[in-house]
Queue: 2 jobs
Job 1
Amino acid sequence: MILTDGDIRAAIAEGALSIAPPPPEEAYAPNGVDLTLDARMTLYRAPAPGEDPVIDPAGPGYSFREAIGAMTDDIEIGAEGFVLDPGRLVLGWTCERVDLKPTARLAARVEGKSSLARIGLIVHLTAPTIHAGSTGRIQLEIINLGPRPIRLRAGMKVCQLILEQTLGVPNNGYRGQFAGQRAAG
């Protein structure tokens, strides 16, 4: 069951869900809430001369954190914004910290905004699920699939959080490889 704007406000008031800073009234849609883009962003860089450019996620000893750390740099989006060229992938974060209490019977999805999708901006490639018990800022896999560069600005509405009620309480809150992840910077 997807929560309505009233259900989301009630979940926040009851402490089942926390969004900080609290979203302004205009952020609420009938069954979701808009989240905004943080100023910190992670950029991929080209392989160094002689460096093997192949990523082998099923290979022995592979570590996601090590792989990302070896091929990215963190930046701050300045007042002029960041121009995302067609075909380029960057990692971003929401400004908002979202905490789903494991006992609240809530999970969520992060979805792109249609107004951005229609110009080619995708904010999550294949990772929309925010598991019950998740806590922290939401990392976004942002890619420009459109024909023109798109200027990203810190604080812009970048995605929607869709909250769903689970049928039960999970045996464990989220403990995967991204548990407790921190924003870049």
Job 2
Amino acid sequence: MLIRNTQNRYGLVTISLHWITAILMIGLLILGLYMVGLPVSPEKLKFYRWHKEFGAIVLALAFLRIVWRFSSMVPTLDFLPVLERLGALAVHYAFYIFMFAMPITGWMMSSAAGFPVSFFGLFLLPDLVSPNESLRITLTETHKWLGYLLIVTIVLHVSASLKHHYINKDNVLRRMLWP
């Protein structure tokens, strides 16, 4: 398998970044939905810590993905109808927005609540805002609704991939899978 993308296929770096980010983001969505319903306990605080730490990894991967995306060729979608190409482009841009907006709003929310964000106990991330209860409430709602929108976007993305694979029988999904 090639490391870099070609005109017809994604390379190992892009595929790895895609699947690692996807697994992390879906896991964080599941953990986020689960942990908010728990009563305050050491277990809930542990889940919040994990959520923040892995969210920081998603943010770092988002920066890496942007650098890679602009330094690497993107396989063409010229074989798709114009509306499908536009839809694919819109969903991909939405994912980049989510990869930045979700971790940043979560980080800001922790800062506004007065809770520092630790990176696996190695160091603390700097606060992005000063403690502020009304800002924390706004950021909590923003983070929550971004999460719901992300779920909808993931469902659209997966549905489109499966449609291309099983109905259109084209290579759209296969070129993002391991060989």
